[in-house]
User: Which sequence fits this backbone?
């Protein structure tokens, strides 16, 4: 097995639970899918399969910690959704090529927002998700302007406000009216 | 290569929460290592913060995702962004991991080990040559922690590092904590590892505390430096001169003032062995 095939198989095993199950239960199909000899797939199953399981879990934990660290305003929603929700998100959303944990967190918030009925999120909590997404988008990308009408987390204001983020020269400005 | 590089001393892996405090502690932080990926496609405020840091500190760009061990080659777009950053901050050297993070269109999102084989040496050599075409500044390669032990090893890790640094002409970024963790998790003697590694190539050190989990030691970058790692830093600095050491705390980040004693402790060990003033 050449290095390219080994790396392709490992990359799949480290990021895809179905591939790990396939290697365990049906090494012949796994071998065919990854241009390996059947004996090579069996070798891989014996030598690294168990370790890739724990590697994948530690990778997922790391991604969860890094992504959710940036989401300070919505920690209660994150805790309520739990690690299993993030695992489901991660399964459907592979890591982007240029990694930015804050943007990964932002994309996770979109996922949570789409599942707000299942997660029983209040209108206020949905707004908090939107506010955090807007803040991160403005802080982490080159977007110039964003306007939102929402409840602002930790503001003590009981009504929805107009929030405006505007990039002027080298400074990001924020108004909440 | 090493002889032509400046001795920088002991510095810190730059993390955004420390931005303001850094200017209060300039005398305690000899240089900064910046995570290159955090500045790719960054908004103007982040770039102007980078400019301010560059005015006051020597900055060393450190990559996470160039994937120098990928058999399919490295991503030219990523390399282009890295080259632009290096051009911007004009460092004496830059660094990346001896690992792969991408294969067959999959971004793994984590440093994944290479098998200690001749083919892997050739792949890294080829990829470093490509990187050099865009970035002429000296490159140093970092040893990683690994929980996967890949089959088919043809040599020890020490010999692998020896061959890679010889073939590529790169220096070594010796992560003392990674060495400590691997030695605990895989039951080898770190001193023996040091005997085999190309210590004459070590340009820079990384260190941070490690976390002992239920089954194994974890490279969490979240703890204060413990006695086992201090002993290993002493062992390394006793054996070899280095141009710099970086404390890299990524999680559970305390105020900068709480990290200064760990910088001072490493500086004192180096001074004891005549490694920097």
Assistant:
């Amino acid at each position: 097995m050449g290095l390219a095939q080994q790396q392709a198989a490992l990359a799949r095993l480290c990021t895809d639970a179905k591939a790990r199950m396939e290697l365990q239960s049906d090494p012949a199909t796994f071998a065919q899918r990854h241009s390996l000899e059947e004996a090579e797939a069996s070798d891989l199953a014996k030598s690294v399969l168990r370790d890739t399981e724990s590697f994948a879990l530690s990778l997922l934990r790391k991604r969860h910690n890094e992504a959710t660290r940036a989401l300070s305003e919505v920690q209660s929603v994150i805790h309520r959704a739990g690690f299993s929700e993030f695992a489901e998100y991660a399964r459907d959303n592979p890591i982007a090529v240029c990694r930015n944990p804050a943007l990964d967190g932002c994309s996770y918030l979109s996922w949570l927002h789409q599942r707000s009925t299942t997660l029983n999120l209040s209108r206020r909590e949905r707004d908090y998700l939107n506010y955090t997404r807007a803040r991160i988008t403005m802080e982490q990308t080159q977007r110039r302007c964003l306007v939102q009408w929402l409840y602002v987390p930790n503001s003590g204001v009981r009504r929805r406000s107009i929030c405006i983020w505007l990039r002027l020269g080298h400074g990001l400005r924020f108004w909440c009216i | 290569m090493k002889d032509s590089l400046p001795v920088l001393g002991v510095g810190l892996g730059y993390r955004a929460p420390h931005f303001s405090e850094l200017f209060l502690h300039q005398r305690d932080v000899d240089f900064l290592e910046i995570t290159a990926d955090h500045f790719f496609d960054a908004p103007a405020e982040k770039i102007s913060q980078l400019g301010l840091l560059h005015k006051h500190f020597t900055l060393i760009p450190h990559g996470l995702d160039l994937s120098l061990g990928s058999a399919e080659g490295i991503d030219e777009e990523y390399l282009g962004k890295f080259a632009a950053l290096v051009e911007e901050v004009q460092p004496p050297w830059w660094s990346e991991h001896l690992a792969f993070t991408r294969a067959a269109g999959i971004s793994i999102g984590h440093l994944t080990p290479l098998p200690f084989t001749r083919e892997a040496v050739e792949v890294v050599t080829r990829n470093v040559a490509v990187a050099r075409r865009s970035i002429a500044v000296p490159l140093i390669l970092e040893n990683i922690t690994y929980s996967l032990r890949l089959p088919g090893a043809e040599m020890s890790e020490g010999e692998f590092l020896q061959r890679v640094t010889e073939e590529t002409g790169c220096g070594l970024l010796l992560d003392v904590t990674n060495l400590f963790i691997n030695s605990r998790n895989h039951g080898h003697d770190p001193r023996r590892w040091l005997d085999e590694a190309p210590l004459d190539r070590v340009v820079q050190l990384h260190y941070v505390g490690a976390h002992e989990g239920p089954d194994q030691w974890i490279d969490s970058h979240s703890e204060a430096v413990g006695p086992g790692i201090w002993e290993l830093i002493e062992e390394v600095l006793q054996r070899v001169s280095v141009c710099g050491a970086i404390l890299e705390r990524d999680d559970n980040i305390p105020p900068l003032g709480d990290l200064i004693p760990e910088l001072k402790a490493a500086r004192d060990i180096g001074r004891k062995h005549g490694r920097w003033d």
